[in-house]
């Protein structure tokens, strides 16, 4: 055997190390994909739970689910506060749902339908307290503004739905 030839076990040893590194890289990639899938599933589960809690509120307070906003405005402060909390919870539920299922048109349509009856309140609330909507994500703020534009909500102080 000449001095320039490499032993067979050294050649195969290098190949085995390269193969082991590739297998490890594939394993690491699989773990990252599993973490990503778990995170996505957790977001979806949390969004469903928040939305179900909102539906429970809707069942407990049907007068807020289909509000007579003019009557609510003239009611006592406790009722007004409960209604504001109801709408805030709806916005939070939609925020969670749209973040988890953003590509799903069904969820966007559901939230749009739920928010539509509350647009006069949201119009007046944001006019009186511009910081109110800033407590929600930018996507939720955009969603509410787009819903107002689509329903042609008139500007404050009137804040009436122009389209049905």
Record the SSE blueprint:
Elements: H1 8-60, H2 62-65, H3 69-74, H4 77-100, H5 105-116, H6 119-128, H7 131-134, H8 138-150
Helix pairs in contact: 1-4, 4-5
Structure description:
With 164 residues, the protein is mainly alpha-helical. The protein has a domain of 106 residues. It has 8 helices and no strands. α1 packs antiparallel against α4 and α4 packs antiparallel against α5. It is elongated and about 95 Å long. The relative contact order is 0.08. The mean pLDDT is 86.
Number of strands: 0
Low-confidence stretches: none
Number of contiguous helices: 8
Q: Which structural class matches the secondary elements? A: mainly alpha
Radius of gyration, whole Å: 27 Å
Largest sheet entry: none
Between the first and last Cα atoms, what is the distance in angstroms? Answer: 92 Å
Q: Percentage of helical residues?
A: over 70%
Q: Approximately what portion of the residues adopt beta-strand conformation?
A: under 5%
What do the pLDDT scores average to?
86
Query: Helix-strand pattern, N to C?
Result: HHHHHHHH
Shape: elongated
């Amino acid at each position: 055997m000449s001095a320039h030839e490499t032993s067979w076990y050294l050649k195969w040893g290098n190949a085995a190390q390269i193969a082991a590194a590739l297998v490890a890289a594939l394993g690491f990639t699989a773990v990252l994909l599993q973490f990503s899938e778990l995170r996505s599933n957790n977001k979806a589960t949390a969004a469903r739970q928040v939305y179900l809690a909102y539906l429970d509120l809707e069942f407990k307070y049907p007068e807020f689910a289909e509000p007579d906003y003019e009557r609510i405005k003239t009611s006592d402060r406790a009722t007004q506060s409960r209604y504001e909390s109801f709408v805030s919870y709806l916005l939070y539920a939609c925020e969670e749902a749209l973040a988890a299922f953003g590509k799903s048109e069904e969820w966007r349509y559901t939230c749009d339908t739920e928010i539509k009856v509350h647009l006069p309140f949201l119009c007046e609330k944001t006019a009186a307290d511009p910081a109110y909507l800033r407590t929600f994500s930018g996507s939720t703020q955009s969603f509410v503004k787009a819903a107002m534009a689509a329903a042609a909500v008139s500007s404050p102080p009137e804040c009436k739905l122009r389209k049905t």
